[in-house]
Specification:
Layout: E1 9-11, H1 17-26, H2 36-45, E2 49-55, E3 61-69, E4 73-81, H3 90-104, E5 109-112, H4 119-127
Parallel strand pairs: 4-5
Antiparallel strand pairs: 1-2, 2-3, 3-4
Helix pairs in contact: 1-2
Length: 145
């Protein structure tokens, strides 16, 4: 992608796996208890999920959004924009693509989670029309790996 060209969002695959994971790490999105390589593989290999991204002609992954759904609620994870490319509109482009992907799948609602204390990211989503939901997210590990 050169300056002035509209970013083209594509579904990522094995060829972009390493670049996507490196981007997630550079953006501070990974956690030791949640291996990003496993997340990438599950999303790319699943029938109701994908990893969307913007890839430069040289193969560099500069933005991603993981999407998935249960048929009713869609989710967005790993929205990431390369630090040098932030505030360029790529986050908005990826969210629009994620919403389109989920809408095309017939999903009526999209949700996402933002870690507590990350006010800058919460403000980004608020500008896109996202509002805090009156819910508590609960979780439990099913496996110990």
């Amino acid at each position: 992608m050169t300056t002035g060209d509209a970013p083209r969002v594509v579904e990522l695959g094995d060829a972009e796996r390493t670049g996507a994971i490196a981007l997630w790490e550079a953006c501070g999105l990974t956690r030791p208890w949640n291996p990003p390589d496993t997340d990438f593989d599950r999303a790319v290999g699943g029938p109701t999920s994908a990893v969307l991204g913007v890839v430069e002609p040289d193969g560099t992954v500069v933005a991603t959004a993981m999407v998935g759904h249960d048929g009713h609620r869609g989710w967005v994870y790993y929205l990431a924009v390369a630090p040098a490319r932030r505030r360029s509109g790529l986050g908005r482009v990826l969210m629009t693509a994620a919403e389109q992907w989920l809408g095309d799948a017939g999903v009526p609602k999209v949700q996402l989670m933002v870690r507590t204390g990350n006010e800058a990211v919460q403000a980004f989503y608020a500008r896109l029309g996202y509002a805090e939901q009156d819910t508590v997210v609960l979780g439990r590990w099913l496996r110990d790996d």
